[in-house]
Design goal:
By secondary structure, this protein is α/β, with parallel strands linked by helices. Helices cover 22% and strands 30% of the residues.
Length: 215
């Protein structure tokens, strides 16, 4: 794990990269990283997240700046800018039921090929997907999802990279930290090794590649 400047952390992200971004309506989203991506003008990004927040907040800033090529999310209902860009053909949007989305990400982190779910059977969701029948019940095969980078917001990080989260700001962050090739973390507080009880570590240090410095 390395501690890097905000500028250098985002400089590692190339145009066209896929990003998992933690947060639920921007709660638990690494706003500093989002702002720096906008400042550096990264382009053609694919964002995998629960949602696209709302105008002026979280992932909504990436939408407004026109930096996204594709969104994979469970809903975009509270961001009219995402809806407008989708209708205009500027952004491809893949809407996935929330439970299915997080389990596909979890599968990517655990090295599994995917999950079986009855959600979507008999609807347009099943188009182009494999189905299996178990004990007379049909399931869709939903494949695992991984990304080039996970952008994670933590409450506490120690100097080896162990992380803990604050209440509901935890949301997708720990699961996404397992499902990306590189993990970049913003933490509200840096603490000495040993400050975080082992029982409270939600993301262990081997999963973390970079922590953004506060300077």
């Amino acid at each position: 794990m390395k501690i890097v400047s905000l500028e250098n952390a985002v400089a590692m992200i190339p145009d066209g990269a896929s990003l998992m971004i933690g947060g639920f309506m921007a709660v638990g989203t690494p706003e500093r990283l989002i702002d720096e991506i906008v400042r550096q003008g990264k382009k053609r990004l694919t964002v995998i997240a629960n949602d696209t927040a709302m105008p002026g907040r979280g992932i909504g800033k990436l939408v407004a700046a026109g930096l996204l090529e594709k969104v994979v999310a469970s809903h975009i209902g509270l961001n009219p800018e995402t809806q407008q860009q989708m209708i205009a053909g500027k952004i491809a949007v893949d809407l996935i039921p929330q439970g299915t989305l997080i389990e596909r990400i979890r599968s990517g982190g655990y090295g599994l090929g995917g999950v079986l779910t009855p959600t979507g059977v008999g609807t347009v969701v099943e188009k182009g997907k494999q189905k299996v029948t178990i004990d007379g019940k049909e399931f869709l095969i939903e494949t695992a999802i991984r990304a080039d980078f996970a952008l994670v917001q933590a409450f506490l990080a120690d100097y080896t990279g162990n992380l803990t989260y604050a209440l509901t700001a935890r949301n997708f962050n720990p699961v996404m930290a397992m499902a990306a090739d590189k993990v970049i973390v913003c933490a509200e507080h840096m603490v000495p090794l040993g400050y975080i009880s082992p029982d409270h570590v939600a993301t262990p240090s081997p999963l973390v590649d970079y922590i953004v410095s506060h300077g």
